[in-house]
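Entry 14: structure prediction run for WD-40 repeat-containing protein. Input pasted below.
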Amino acid sequence: MTAVELTFEQAMLVLDRVLQTKHLSNIQELVLRLCWKGYTYAEIAESSGYDDDYIRDVGFRLWQTLSKALGENIAKSNVKTVLRRYYANLVPAESAGSSITAFPNAKPQRRQDWGEAIDVSIFYGRKAEQALLEKWIIQEKCRLVMLLGMGGIGKTALSVKVAEQLQSKFDFLIWRSLRNRPPISALLADLILFLSQETEENLPETTDGQISCLIKYLRSQRCLILLDNIESIFREGETAGHYSPGYEGYGQLLRRVGDELHQSCLIFTTRETPSGFTAREGETLPVRSLQLTGLPQLESQQILSSKGLANSAAETKQLIQSYTGNPLALKIAATTIQSLFDGDISQFLQQGPVVFGDIWVILEQQFHRLSANEKQVMYSLALKQTWVTLTELQQDVVPQISEGELLEALLSLQRRSLLEQQSGRYSQQPVVMEYVTDNLMGQVCCVLS
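Run finished. Output tokens:
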């Protein structure tokens, strides 16, 4: 009797049952999916854009994980046989003529892939933001939503929290990080295979064709796609939001998802507004953006309390203001205060600098991406230590730049969430100002030494 061929979807049902909460990562599932189709490691590496050795290492660890979970040696050569046997044992046959008849290939009610999404079981504030996003996505059917903010402000956490709240409204949900800069072809293949339940085998060769294929699924079913850290694919040393060479296809993806009619939604987080996005967004349009700022006093205090800090209201308020309610910066500072100052906020604040360790790293990453003109504007603002007008700023920037260049730099800094604006005047957040001042002093010292 010939056994019925096991589909990849059925194999994943077996692994979901066996692995329980320890699901495969997105790259492990990609390797398993393509191995299932007979690809070699070299072919997987070429098609996905990853290094050959990296794919081999992922494969090696994948077989180790499956071997441990299933209690027998698993390799590329026997994975189908073993999972077919497990499937038959887990699901009794409905007829004598087939060893695999349950779990038919019918579309499941819901399917989710959370990738490397973070745990948000402990989450502070953002109630208004959550309600607004739900209104945009569910009631007003927005197709493309940007969560914008500086590093550590909580964009990733908010994206996951909102996805958790809205998951029952979607047939498919998939969350992916772009931190490792996957080629657009690899991402599109990943999304299409997931949304098609691995039935779309002959993917178009062109990026435009692949996006058309993806939109076909966005139209036929309700899908929620979340892309994190999209700034990773932007160029450094230029004004904000320009795609790195070879990554222009991401801009094409965002444009078409925002412009074309479908019933799904793509949410992305970023520290920089992508080029071309601003022209498409609007309060009554299906493309929207949400600028995240620091947490209010109450929620910021909750973060400090969770770290065991119980100082006076004045000291707590000063600490929160120093970091303008940035959740990650507050967590880092609170840990340092507990470790080095016995939980005494006043002693920490007396030391002067509030930019250190991982907080410095976050700002360094963002400052490193600036163009030369943007850096000059940031230095000038830091030296002024107060709010300045456009005219005053143009006089202070050294070397002198034209008004057009200054406006371009200011607009770009706004798109990076590094600029504060108030009644036609400009300044910086305290923590940003301290970092830029220290950076400038370091350059001066290097020149003088």
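Notes: Residues 92-109 have pLDDT under 50 and may be disordered. Will compare against the previous run tomorrow.
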